[in-house]
């Protein structure tokens, strides 16, 4: 379960919250949140055959990967 930038419904508050969370992660952790294309590359490079991202609980998403 993680935040996937751009995966939540097109709701103004959700988009604003995602972007603010992304800025916070860059400042505190030094790494921004990832978009789906970035997750896809990670999964493909790791050898997974597929994945599924489901927006769940506002700005958070459930990420499933398949062997």
Automatic annotation (TrEMBL):
<dbReference type="InterPro" id="IPR029063">
    <property type="entry name" value="SAM-dependent_MTases_sf"/>
</dbReference>
<protein>
    <recommendedName>
        <fullName>Trans-resveratrol di-O-methyltransferase-like</fullName>
    </recommendedName>
</protein>
<dbReference type="GO" id="GO:0008168">
    <property type="term" value="F:methyltransferase activity"/>
</dbReference>
<dbReference type="InterPro" id="IPR016461">
    <property type="entry name" value="COMT-like"/>
</dbReference>
């Amino acid at each position: 379960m993680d935040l996937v930038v751009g995966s939540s419904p097109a709701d103004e508050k959700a988009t604003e919250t995602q972007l603010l969370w992304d800025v916070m992660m860059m400042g505190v952790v030094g790494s921004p949140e990832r978009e789906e294309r970035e997750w896809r590359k990670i999964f493909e490079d790791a050898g997974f055959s597929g994945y599924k991202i489901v927006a769940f609980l506002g700005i958070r998403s459930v990420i499933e990967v398949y062997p």
